[in-house]
Input
Amino acid sequence: MIETLQFVYAPQIINGLSIGVAVILMALGLTIIFGLLDVINMSHGEFYAAGAFLGLTLIAIGIPFWVCIVLVPAVLFPLGVITEKFLIQKVFNSKDRHILTLLLTFGIAIVLEDLFKIIWGANPSKLDSPIQGAVDLLGVMFPKYRLFLMIFGAVIIFGVWLLIYKTPVGAIIRASAHDRNMAASLGIPVTWVHALTFGFGVSLAGLAGILLAPIYSVFPTMGKDFILMAFSVVIVGGLGSIKGAVVAGLLLTQLQSISSLFISPVWSDPLVFGVMIIVLMFKPSGLYGGLKNG
Amino acid sequence: MDKAGKLAIRAVEVTLFGSALILVVVGSLTGDSFYLRLATEALIFGGLALSVDLLLGIVGLLSLGQALYFGFGAYLSALILKEVYPSFWLAMCLVGICSAALGYAASFIALRSKGVYFALITFGLAQVVAKGVYNTRALGASDGLIGVPVIKLWTPIGNLDTANPAVLFTVVFLVISCLYYFVKYFLTTPMGSIWQGIRSNEHRLSFIGIESTGPKRFAFVIAAIVAGLSGALYPVLRGFVSPELLYFAVSGNAVITVVLGGVGTLVGALFGSVLLTILKSVIGTITAHHHIVIGLIFVFVVIAAPGGLVGWLRKKLNERLEMNRD
Amino acid sequence: MKRRALLLTALISTLFVTGASAQTEPVKVGVVTPLSGVYAGIGQQVRWGLELATREINAAGGINGRRVELIFEDEEANPAVATQKAEKLFQVNRVDFLTGTVSSGSTLAVGQVAERNNRLMATTVSFADSITGDRCSPNVFRVNARAGMQSAALAAWMVKERPNADVFFLGPDYEMGRSTVAAFKAAATARGAKAVGEVFAPLDNKDYSPYFGQIRAAKPSVIYTSVAGNDTVRFFNQMAEYGVNKNVVLVGASGTVTSQNLAAIGKAAEGFVTGAGYSPKLDNPQNRKFVADFQAAYKTLPDLYGADSYGLMYFLKTAAEKAKSVETDKLRVAMRDHEWMTPQGTKRMRAGDHQAMQEMYAVRIEKGDFNIIGRVTPADAIGPDACTRF
Output
């Protein structure tokens, strides 16, 4: 019994955790953009890929990995701001905003994916793991880099939560999400808040991209890897809720991880999707709905 | 719909009909095969786009998974024609009925939500089924089903040979036209007004005592039938089906088609399909990077010309009408 | 008098001109291959192999004195697009022959188009057994080795080097992945190996670590896999991450590690063994020249797709010269039981199923090179003729 727990379940749970951190990082940016801008960013996966490709190039010219972890989000931030200000805002004020922003980001995704292929080629590339080797964890070998990921990822997630809920900047963001007009009448430059928040959201995705690249490799269609899972997490957790993204992220990845012990792994994606549908059918606002709600 | 709008739609309808006529005549005389069949394929995918436009442009629901019904219709049609009996009418009837049933069943899952959620659910449904088909040996798995025989179409005036490109094109054109007028007809009924009400402001409808789920379900089923019947034509043209017909790329292309042609105009979907097919063919011969070109055009249209081609035409006609009035 | 002579000369010269132009009208070969999308890397090798051979053939006078012209179209790794482009090539460009398809689905669908247009086509990449097996076509030829031949080569090597091994199987969960695993499992267990576990991961799976517990518990000495492309990159790298590949021999299908993903797999591919129809390290005069020319032209080594595509052009040339024509029925007759020289030595096109017979190799990756560590004769490798259609 203990052995089953140790050698069968424990590794699955730990693995699920490391995948979970990755998914939550993706979902965080998505839910913040959702929650504040009310925009479904179909190109979120492509910004994730952009982070990985950017990291690839920076490392190739000799910049150390640890510097890249800071540089990549820093570069993607203004790119995101520009995208929001010059593309998304153009359709933001129309009557069909929801559909148009969805279609627009869908188009951006197509362009970005092909751009990656043109610049970097269609074949996969490798990003060497900065921490090699594995440790013995409860009798199971576990790569050190994944451990680092889990810890670093948790720190980032906590940091984002702090930013949104405990700082003045965060208050401004939440105010603009809660009531745009009121915030504007209080003197908050709402359109700038939107642009900056979008930039922040996609830079989180880019950070996830470079962090995960050593594990999952880099190639032009990698944006599709996590996107369905990230959307499921955001919906189950509640649009705009960070706590929701974390809880749902952990729950869904654990579900996926442990279910692969009992059912054919091909069905674990549909299973997660099924959970999302059930949540949508019975509690459409998710577990914790809304940016305002923490 | 204002006068300019109606005029724009009529203009495009006439253009399509006229071009089809010319194509058939010239094509038959010159013995062309490729362009007729390419146009046939454009029409078939145009039917799929039509179903997307019904949901998006009329009812206001963006479906990112209409390829599910298209692919379903294609596979069912291929199986019937190959394994049961190579009768066009049999396949079409069965596909029509089964697509309706499938759409009805799926609506219970999809219609529990709206807006973004609806889009994601339809996307996910198509993905799940596509994966299932990809893995099913009985359906040919990843290779699909080849060997659909060339169909001889029964009509009261004799059998039509679908191997003749002009004949097949005419048949498909007639079928798609029927689907088009079928959908257009509903717009003139009370149901059509409810649909448009749902699109403008669903919430308010409940205040005037109109329940929206029934009409939405009805639209969903009609869209499934249209997509399914269009899909059923595919194996008649190409002689095979493959899982790629269910993939997101097909659903996504249909959405692009609708936006290019003009959301909500119905004829825009058909015209957009012809346009996209031509674009892809031309650009594809020039460069391998056609995706980015089409992506950029799409982004441009969404931002600068959200009414698509028909919308642009409508604006121009409006200006002309204004000028004439003064 | 003078005028009549002038007229006559004019008449005769026009006859000559038209006659001559009929002679110099090129032999057109259509190429429907993925130039974009996930298989673009393979399509690129196919393109290079075909172009290199075509240049050589044209420099030596062409086919039956006619220049060879290649016309490319992008199939986007989608059978629906492939059939459309194939039709365009047959009907608008009027090509005499077609090739280039990569996925089995595309090859089968385009084969049907070829039948309906009464032309021949060949594949140089698709390895599904069905193409020259239960779904064979009188208009489709295969120049490359098929899955059964690849398994045979690998199984033969394993019997010699790792007899009675405990083998764990991991494949991508779709028809092709499953059948490749099943075929090798049958070949290996028939020769004394023991199957200690089997798992199928979804296609495009990101994380293989959930399966490592199972693999470790089974304690295999050999792991066989039929994943490909990006999946291989992730599987191998993650195995190295977790130390699962220590003291285990990694073997797999020939599409698992290729020049497209070798760089991304890096060190983790070291020691991987597969059964393949080609290696750039093949040491015979034809291949040495081919590799040198290929590298000079394209600055990279050829892989099996490039080599087989190169070989195809010579297949077409020598068969057309035997038939003295590129007309479909004459060409088909000439191609059956035809033997021709390729970088892999002499190949013979089996008449019964249009499958090329060739020597097969067990290939191991050592320091980034594909070294040959075993051989199987063509007759032993090919397997039975399962085509009953013609």
